[in-house]
Structure formats: structure tokens, C-alpha cells
Amino acid sequence: MSVPAESAATAVPPGGQPRKAALAAWIGSALEYYDFFIYGSAAALIFPKVFFDESDPATATLLSLATFGVAYAARPVGALFLGHFGDRIGRKNVMVFTLLLMGLSTFLIGCLPTRAQVGGLAPVLLVLCRVLQGISAAGEQASASSMSLEHAPPNRRGFFTSFTLSGTQGGQLIATLVFIAVSQLPEDQLMSWGWRVPFWLSVAVAVAGWFIRRRLQETPAFAEQAAGEGVLRLPLVTLLRHHWADLLRVIGGALIASVSTIFTVWALAYATSDSVGMSRTSMLWVGALANLVALGAIPAWATLSDRIGRRPVYLIGAVGSAVAMSGYLWAISTGSYPLIVVLGIVAFGVVYSAANGVWPSFYGEMFSTRVRLSGMAIGTQIGFAVAGFAVTFAAQIAGPGGDDWSAVALFTAALCVPPVIAALSARETHTLATEDLGSRTAGAASRPETVTA
Question: Which UniProt keywords apply (predicted)?
């Protein structure tokens, strides 16, 4: 007897653990972006005085911020390896590895000796830890999103995969609150031991995530694929040969992350500059409130995408972000704090959340099970690498005074164009069965010469 279409769409796959997979994804992403925000703040305020104190202040800050970008340079390389192994040995193994690597490297940063203690070895060790963090981040969101998608009922893939991005907002929110608290310490205590505390606290998140992830079963889709046709020897070859168009779409779509980096880094620097004069603490609270709203907006947008489709919701986020970010940067230029708070929440907490909440399902559904993790990891990390350096370009575009907000607004809007093109050219996938995802190009992927039993 055949199963009615509606019940098949709502049924959890045999062996599926959608809630546990979503929780595991949330924990890992929270740890990753907790580190992202803490490291960025420390690189701007602490590390120039701790690891690069023999240079003049301007050079020390430049060198410190350069270590922030190292992780973005490492991400595409890490994506090649972690994507390969995720499609070869499973999503769970990669998720456990990335969590432990991120937790360990973040904790070690808090233990590093300063330049005053060991000389030039200190910044070298800092860069090494940052590279390890970048490698970990390269596989975290792709493996977590793949895991959540493949455990979820077909008609709720958007909702369950959105927990990966809810975790990123949760991590940023926690990091903001921790950094606000630590920054209240006296200067000598902050520079001697206070700055280390946020890095040490990452261990608690890593341990909690490890206990959850080690009990999580491999996804039904991957287990069925491995037991049936087998896994690919070289997923990357199949990805580039048969899924190159969707890979390009993911790379273009991932540029939407530039909205996040410009909001959290450049806009913060602009608002606290002499030309505007906002206090850092007040602007940190804008980010905290926006992230708090995003915790509810992300699953709401994702649930809507389960009903009306990924493309329209994603387009709302991409097109809307181009407009809303212009409004937010204009608000900063006015120096009106109430206006900054309202438009900051609208731009980042509400509008950007539409694209941010739906991309894990939108990108993941472009690929078949056999190359899903590779496609998501490589595509997103190349796009994210560009987004990571968008702040540097924005600083140049803003002019010598760093206050040409309109030029940065136009630059941000331009970075939203490739995501719009990617969405318009993609096929709608929210109604497809999980086993049929990527079917347009997956047929050739089962050739015997590329498969191991």
C-alpha cells in the first residue's frame, strides 16, 4: 500500500533524530560564532598590547587585525578536506571533529604566553591557533546543516536546518554579554588575565556539544547511501563535474554574509569613531538586541520557507538587506541612538535573518546526499572568505576619514547582487523528497568508476 504524499512529507525518516540533530547544530554554531566575536573584539582592543606591543600602536593594530583574517584564508582549504571526509565517512564524524578542534584551539588562545614572556614566538602561536579555528569553522556549518537536513521530515527541513544559524546568533549574543562584563575590569587586570576568561569559557560549550554529538546517529540518508550504492572515492571530482552550476550559486549566495561582517565590524568602528562619537558599550548593546530578535526571526522565516519556498524568502533577505543596511548606516551618521537601535534591529535582526535563516536548507537542497557536505562547505567558505575581507574594502571605500557611509552602503548593496542572481537562477526545492534532492545532476554521479562499495 502506498504512503499518502502528505504523510510521507511529514514523516521523520526511519532512524531520524531531527530535534537532537538541530540541538547539536545549534551548540556547534554557537561555539563557532562565540569565538568569532570574542576574537574580533580582542584583536581590536587587546592583542595589539599583548602580542604586538613592540610595534607602534597603528602597526600593532594592523598586525592584530591581520590575524583575524587568517581564519578566512584557512577556511576554503579546510573545506576541501572536511567536505571530502564528510561525504566519505559521514556527517557525525566531521561534526565531532570540528567541535573538538574549535574548543581546543579557542581554549589554547586563552593560555598563550604574551610577547613580553616569550618574544616573537607569541604571535606565531596566536596565528597557528587562528588557523586551526579557521579549519574547524570550514566544516562546522556545512556538516551541521547537512546533518539537520537529512534527519528532518521533508516538509520541515527549513525549520530544522535553521537551528545552525540560530546558533550563530546565540553565540554572538553570549559573546557580547561576556565581553561587556569582562571589559569592565580595571585595565591592568584586563590585560593580564581578564581577556583570557572568554576564551577559557569556550570549553564549557565544547564539552556540552561533545556529549550531545557523540550520541547522535548518522543521518538516514547517508547511512542508506553508504549501505547501498556506496560513497564516492573523490566527492570533489563529482561535485565539479556534475554540480558545478549549483556550486557557483552557493559561492555567489554566500556573499550575503558580507552584511553580517559590515554590520558587526565596520559599522561598529564607524559608530565609535570621532566623527560619530557613540560609546562602544552602547553599540555592543545594539548588536546584542539585534541578535536577540534574530533568535526568533530565523526559525520564523525558515518555517515560512517550508510553506512558500526557499527562493522567495531568501530574496526578501537579500534584496531587503541592501536597503535596510543603507538605512542603518544612515542612522549611525545622524548620531541618534534610538534611531540606530531601531534600524539596527530591523536590518540585522529581522531582514537579514530571512536570508540567514533559509540558506542552510536552500544551499543543502541543491546537492545530492553524496556531495552535499562538499558542495556546502566549499561553496560557502569561498564566499565567506570574500565576505571576511569585505570589512577591509569597506574601510578603504569610506575614505581617509572613514566616514563615507553612503559609499559603504552602496558597496554593501553591490555585494547583495550575486546572492539575488543565485536565488533567481536556482530551482525551488522545498517540496522535493529528500532522496530526490540534486536529482537533476545526480544521475551521472553514480558511475561505477567513482564509487567505493
Answer: Cell membrane, Membrane, Transmembrane, Transmembrane helix, Transport
Neighbours of 443 (CB within 10 A): 11
Question: 90 CB contacts (<8 Å, ≥6 apart)?
Answer: 218, 219, 222, 226
In order, the DSSP letters of 235-274 are HHHHHHHHSHHHHHHHHHHGGGHHHHHIIIIIHHHHHTST
Alpha carbon of residue 277 to chain centroid: 30
Question: How far, CA to CA in Å, does 288 sit from each of 179, 205, 225, 293?
Answer: 11, 19, 42, 9
- CA-angle at 144, arms to 291 and 432, nearest 5°: 100
Among 53-57, 188-192, 239-243, 443-447, top mean pLDDT goes to 239-243
Interval 34-66: pLDDT, tens: 877 788 777 767 787 888 776 666 666 667 666
| Contact present, 100 and 209 (Cβ < 8 Å) | no
- Residue corresponding to grid cell 574580533: 40
65, 126 Cβ separation under 8 angstroms: no
Give the pTM: 0.85
Q: CB 447: neighbour CB atoms within 10 A?
A: 12
Adjacent-strand bridge partners of 231:
452
In the beta sheet, which residues pair with residue 451? 232
**DSSP states along 168-233:** HHHHHHHHHHHHHHHTTS-HHHHHHTGGGHHHHHHHHHHHHHHHHHHTPPPPHHHHHHHHTT-EES
Element (H, E) at 390: helix 390-397
- Running DSSP on this structure, what letter comes out for residue 443? G
Closest by CA to 366, choosing from 229, 161, 82, 166, is 161
Q: Retrieve residue 5's grid coordinates.
A: 504524499
- Cell triple for residue 309? 519556498
The b-or-e profile of 295-307 (16+ CB within 10 A means b, else e) is: bebbbebbbbbbe
